[in-house]
Amino acid sequence: MSSMPSPSPQIVRRVERLRKELLDHDYRYYVLAEPVIADEDYDRLMRELQDLEGRYPVLRSADSPTQRVGGEPTKQFASANHNPPMLSLANTYSEEEIRDFDRRVRELLEGEKPVYVAEPKFDGVAIALTYREGVFVRGATRGDGTQGDDISNNLRTIRSLPLRLRTKDPFLMDLEVRGEAFMHRTDFEAMNEQRETAGEKSFINPRNATAGTLKLQDPKLVAARPIQIFAYFLFAGRKRLATHMENLRILRSLGFPVNGDAQQCTSIDQVVAYWENLEARRDSLPYDIDGVVIKVDNLRQQDILGTIARSPRWAVAFKFASRKAETQLTGITLQVGRTGTVTPVAELEPVFLGGTTVSRATLHNIDYIRELDLRVGDVVVVEKGGDVIPKVSGVVPGRRPAGAKRFTMPAVCPVCGSGIYRTEGEANYFCENAACPAQVKGRIEHFASRPALDIEGLGEAAVEQLVTLGLVGNVADLYALAGKKKDIVALERWGEKSAQNLLDAIEGSKTQPYHKVLFGLAIRHVGTGVAKVLATEFPSIDALQEASPERLQSTQQVGPTIAESIAHFFGDRHNRNVIRRLKEAGLQFTTAAPRERKTLAGKTFVLTGTLPSYTREEAAAIIEQNGGKVSGSVSKSTTYVLAGDDAGAKLAKARSLGVRVITEDEFKTLVQ
Ligand code: IVH
Fold first, then answer.
1. Which domains, and CATH codes, for the chain?
2. Pocket around ligand 1 at a 6 A CB cut-off
3. Region 546-572: what's the mean pLDDT?
4. How close is the Cα of 88 to the center of ligand 1, in Å?
5. Whose CA is nearest to atom 24 of ligand 1?
6. Residue of 77, 251, 46 whose CA lies nearest to 149
7. What is the pLDDT of residues 412-459, one digit of tens each?
8. Which residue CA neighbors atom 10 of ligand 1 most closely?
9. pLDDT exceeds 50 at position 1
10. Coil, helix or strand for 275?
11. How far apart are CA 350 and CA 368, in angstroms?
12. Would residue 598 show up in a list of annotated catalytic residues for this protein?
């Protein structure tokens, strides 16, 4: 066992200290949203802890913040029993039903007046969390209410979930906490966009995305997904608990995220008012809700009321009316997203729904249309969820006009006319033309992003300006910007200095290695990892372009999907054209060590006269980028005088000293 060093008491203390600090920062950042240290400092502490746990495996522990990055994959989830069982709620849909509920409660309480707590009904996935001696030991799905799946390792990755309770109260060390896992709509949308770029199926809504995520076998994947939680139920065997509202306060003090909208209501009128108010605010919340949950606040009263058929008599769900309407489908058109995804859109006879007139709705993808057997002319059901984009959720039977035809996917992109294609097993069609106007901005942003060509100053806003004003139409155009500096300076929020910085950054990107360029081209399914493998296996882009599908697939990590995607990319003449221009601009398209570009090292230039195509500043910048120096006066140590029209005294001096005089054309061959 000599290879397993045992830690000194100082190390043990340091590890404990680091854990406490990191868990505390997690809490401040993810629960309170009030971070107190910089990300780099957090990362530094985390690395130190990871390092110590790596060196002293005996110190590893399930409640360490290092576990948030995700442990080993599981083949099958163990089952988890729920004690007490996870109940379900009876649903009500109208004021009348909610008043009935109130009447029943008062009857059963024999005249005692109940206080209610009203809170949002989160549209997520129910979870059960078990703590022993203050430490998170198990987390499970609801399953059938008495038995679910043990998904502890997945839940441990959720940054806002306390791995240790923030309490010293011995009666609050062993708990059962229930709550909801969910995703913010904006996080969900960003995640879907990323998935589409990677060629993966997008999720239909945040709840599906959450459920799908929590069922993943690999916690490392879960760690990368934006899951949040709210706790709303506490069961503490040894603590005397009095009211639900008090429990919410306790949960908050223990370190759980608890929703702030729970409210005590002393009458059923107040409950109805709460429901109306929340319904009106529904779309402005960052997450989806589908109604209000009403609970009798007093826990003793809850006991009296009890449970029937797996639903408590002390609580009820008061759902929002679903925002559905029927209307006629007048056409199906195609929309092309930033990443080239081609999605079918329903054109509808305008219909009033959830406060707005809806005339278009998403149809997700061609499979969805086939599943519904949707045809133009059909009367369809349109639904609005929490998000603003309405969707077609069904067809009204028996209303189909005679002769209504099935929809077939057009063969070309509606925006640019290039061919569109779909790989076996994928939901979406894609337009693979990198120059397609619908995708131009997204592709340029990707190209300039840090893991790709890392061009500083070329973010979303800059790309937007450059593309909108026609200065750039594809990534190759970036390398022609040097000649358009004046146009950039003239843009809003730009000046001489920022324009030059951008041009320098673009110039600098020419030395980025081949694998980054390959990644930057945004070939579907070619992420950073695959790009590296390809760059090693095919040391030039020509070799990659000419490789047969069999040759491609013999490469590690490259299967039929990637091979097909690469073939499609190079099969498009717009793409080949962009690559040719990037090559001409001097980007790295081979794995060979980057060409030494400091060709002018040790050489001193003097500029004089007016050059045909460069300004003085531009010429000076090129010289400096190539390692040369620019001086104001001619001397014996001057290597070249770069002379344009109307050159005067400096040219004469050069001649008298025997310094070599060159034209702009000669200069260009020097720096090529
Ligand atoms: S309390 C006995 N509170 O609704 C009551 N449930 O049908 C136990 N839900 O799947 C649940 N928001 O996941 C409660 N604020 C909330 C809730 C909530 C959503 C879900 C829960 C469960 C279902 C119950």
1. 9-69 (1.10.287.610), 91-319 (3.30.470.30), 323-395 (2.40.50.140), 440-585 (1.10.150.20), 604-670 (3.40.50.10190)
2. 87-89, 119, 121-122, 126, 142, 180, 232-233, 293, 312, 315
3. 87
4. 7
5. 88
6. 77
7. 999 899 999 887 777 889 897 877 888 898 899 999 998 899 999 998
8. 126
9. no
10. helix
11. 22
12. no
Which residues are CB-neighbours of 129 under 8 A, at least 6 positions away? 136, 138, 139, 155, 161, 175, 176, 177, 178, 179, 231
d(CA 321, CA 290): 9
For 188-223, write each residue's pLDDT tens digit.
988 887 776 766 777 878 999 999 999 999 999 999
Comparing 52-56, 661-665, 667-671, the range with the smallest average pLDDT is 667-671
Q: At what angle do helices 268-281 and 95-108 cross, to 10 degrees?
A: 140
Which one, of 223, 208, 374, 404, lies nearest residue 288 by Cα?
208
Protein residue closest via CA to atom 18 of ligand 1: 121
Both structure tokens of 235: 């069961």
Q: Where are the alpha helices (DSSP H) in 287-389?
A: 299-305, 366-372
Sign of the alpha-carbon dihedral angle for 289, 292, 297, 300: negative
382/354 Cα distance (integer angstroms): 11
Q: Could you tell me what percent of the chain has a pLDDT over 90?
A: 63
Q: What is the pLDDT of residue 527?
A: 83
Q: Please identify, by atom number, the ligand 1 atom nearest to the C-alpha of residue 120.
A: 15
